[in-house]
Write a structure and sequence with these properties.
The protein is mostly helical. It has a single domain (about 25-255), classed as Vanadium-containing Chloroperoxidase, domain 1 (Up-down Bundle). Helices cover about 65% and strands about 0% of the residues. Helix 7 (about 120-140) packs antiparallel against helix 9 and helix 9 packs across helix 11 (about 230-245). The longest helix has about 35 residues, at about 15-50. The chain is elongated, with a radius of gyration of 30 Å.
């Protein structure tokens, strides 16, 4: 009997290996496509920023407009915020290290984690990231803006030069990065998007701690003199626009994934050749009340 069961189960077992290989191949193919897609996006973004020709005078004029608008809006002064930590060299250096070494690694880490464990959420976040980056590139090209550290009249200290390390060359025209692309801040925008992704995936109240990441990023870009406070506001708004646009897609509406999975989840058929049989005592139907009374009468 055991030999017959093993013989019947062997075809199903033999069919699992090709199925696993096909799944692994599909995952590998999807991974290659996503890496290529994100690589193209980052390359186009960096190339577009670099090719966007901006005169120093134009970028500085826009900087004065942003500075005056912040004062009119009564936003906190970047000079005051930087002054709180500037006298502590270690904090300034940590802020520089954060600016240089946290932005891309955290973004890639969250994307990889979502790709492996939450594929549906990954596709949505990836699309939101592309939309937000594309909008930011259009603004960078059409509205060059010098960061506050490059406008001496504002009194902002360039901590990357005075303390180090620096993410940019000494010359504003050297290197591959366009230093006149302060508006909007994608450091803040991407941090907001990663926090939103974590909040959507997790369900506990601790998920709101993810908001500390964009808050800390926002503080760092201001302390280092790389962005205005308004840059972070615009970057956050762009991400929220991208999130709202993706929310219009039916499959990415709240609760859509769970309902669709519940409705389309296939039932698992019983393995071939295996029949579940109950013992005769358990399979026998329970007697009705009249039969119980007759049984008691016969025993008296």
């Amino acid at each position: 009997m055991i030999q017959e069961a093993l013989t019947e189960a062997s075809p199903a077992t033999a069919g699992r290996a090709p199925g696993r290989a096909a799944r692994r191949l599909a995952v590998l193919r999807a991974l290659v496509i996503e890496v290529f897609l994100l690589g193209v996006m980052f390359s186009v973004y960096e190339l577009g920023r670099h090719l966007a020709e901006a005169e120093v005078g134009e970028a500085t004029t826009h900087a004065r407009h942003v500075w005056d608008l912040e004062r009119w809006l009564h936003l906190p002064s970047e000079v005051t915020l930087q002054g709180w930590v500037l006298h502590i060299v270690d904090i300034a250096r940590l802020a520089n290290l954060y600016y240089v070494g946290v932005h891309f690694p955290v973004t890639f880490a969250v994307l990889v984690w979502l790709f492996v464990w939450h594929r549906g959420e990954y596709l949505r976040v990836r699309t939101e990231l592309i939309i937000a980056t594309a909008i930011a590139l259009v603004i960078h090209i059409n509205y060059p803006l010098a960061p506050p550290r490059l406008v001496p009249a504002f009194g902002i200290v360039d901590t990357m030069v005075t303390v180090g390390p620096s993410a940019y060359p000494e010359s504003t025209t050297g290197g591959f990065a366009n230093q006149f692309a302060a508006m909007p801040s994608l450091h803040v925008g991407w941090a907001v998007l990663m926090a939103i992704a974590l909040i959507r995936v997790y369900r506990g109240r601790w998920r709101w701690l993810a908001l500390l990441y964009p808050a800390m990023t926002w503080a760092v870009v201001v302390i280092t003199g790389n962005h205005y406070i308004l840059d972070g506001i615009i970057g956050s708004m762009i991400v929220l626009v991208a999130v709202a646009l993706c929310g219009l897609v039916p499959r990415w509406r709240p609760g859509r994934d769970r309902r669709s999975l519940a409705a389309t989840a296939p039932t698992s058929p019983a393995p071939a050749g295996i029949t579940m049989r109950l013992p005769a005592a358990l399979a026998r139907p329970r007697p009705r009340p009249a039969e119980v009374d007759a049984l008691h009468e016969s025993r008296r």
